[in-house]
Write a structure and sequence with these properties.
mainly alpha
Length: 245
Amino acid sequence: MTEFAWLALGGFILLAYTLEAITGFGGTLVALSLGALLLPIHDLLPVLVPLNILMSGALAWHHRRLVQWRLLLFTVLPGMLVGTLVGYGLRPWLEDSAMRLGFGVLILCVALRELLRGAPSGRAPAWMIRLQTGAAGISHGLFASGGPLLVHALAGSALDKSRLRATLLCVWFGLNSLLTLAFLADGSLAPALPRVAAYAPLLILGVPAGEYLHKRLAEAHFRTAIHLLLGLCGVLLCCRAQAFG
């Protein structure tokens, strides 16, 4: 059963990082949501985070001219960095059942909100953006999945989808590099490296497919499908956490 779960994770990774190549976020969230139905979150993160470094680093470099550096350096990274450190510090205190339940509730709330909300009503106050960015960082430290909360915080930034994607990819490359160093320090990275190497070739398929679809297909349709999938995963994760907690 365990080997089947790791094999299934390969399919989840291919789907998830194709979607992230389209939108600039959500790859780790989708892979972790689906993978957590079969495997412990603590085992998944040291595999998924280094894979995301490879994908986000390659795409961020390719689209570096589109990165909004002022927004990245002065608005996004400070709050995300502090929040990520706080979230990572909380991980050892949480059991896997609590992680599943918390993560399930988080992605269910995000999915429902994104499915129900209309167009952004305007730019939020600066203090609200910083608060939401910090919350996104905590989510990233806990689950390596701060994308939906960060995108919500930047909803009024008036960036087109290509500039927003390029800027988000730089965020994930920086923060996931930091998390990978933390996994190296706590000893969880080394056992995961063979699986990282085994899954890495999937990015060669997923990234070009995502690039192709990013240019040609309506992003809104993909986001709707992603959030429907995440909503289902959130329900299943909450039920699993209650059953085995």
